[in-house]
User: Fold this.
Amino acid sequence: MTFLHIDVKIRKQTEDSIARRVPAIRVLAKRYNVMCAELNTHSGQHKHPSAAPPTPLNMDRLFDPEANQHMWMSQGLYQSGGQPPPYMFDSRVREGISAKLVLDRAEEEEHRLQKEAVSMAQWISSQLENTDHALKACTGQQLVHIRFPILIHIVR
Assistant:
């Protein structure tokens, strides 16, 4: 059996497994949306009036993580009975958290690109130095071989 055949077989099994579970996931998502609607009409919101009710899931894009980002946020009620943390009820705080995560990813990428630029500059510098040494070592011979990362042939 080839690795390609095994990969195809595993992929097919995974797709079949996911396909079997999709109906159950859709039922749970519909049930969650019904509960969200009930919570929005519930009269007992006086305990945590500042806590935002959960947002229903977008059923058309249920399996798109970008469409249902709120699903990944912890939105349960604060357990101590006091004021819930600001990220639970203040949309500006939640937006700030998302913006901070984007900023962190951008800074990580900038740092990685700076390291890559330094590495490239060092490589170019070493290549120029090797070329300079090769040209200086050339004494009119037909072919000069020098041990450097790139084999340099100088033909006169």
Observations:
- The two ends are 55 Å apart (CA to CA).
